[in-house]
Amino acid sequence: MASTASIKPAISNDESLDGAVSLEAEERLRLKVDFRLCTIAGLLCSLNILDSSIISSASVTSMLKDLGLEGNRYSVSILIFTMASVCFQLPATLAVRFLGPRTFFSSFALGFGLITICTAFIHTWQQMIVLRALLGICTSGIYPGLAFLISSWYRREELQLRFAFLQVAQVVVLATGGIVNFGLNQLGGQHGLKGWQWMYVVQGLITCLIAIATYWWIVDFPENATKSFFFLDETETRIAVARIQRDRRDVIPTPFSWPETLKHFLDPKVYGFAAMFFLLNLVSTALGYFLPIILQNGMGFSENKSILLSAPPNYYAVIPVLLSSRIGDKYRIRGPVITFNSLCLIAGFCMLGFSDQVTARYVGTYLATGAYVSNWAALNSYQACNITGQWKRAVTAAAVTACNGLGGVAGSFIVRPNEAPRYPTAVWVSIGSHIMIIGIVATFSMYFFTANQRQRKGKNIIEHTDGFRYTY
Question: What angle do CA 34, 39, 41 make, to 5 degrees?
Answer without folding.
Answer: 100
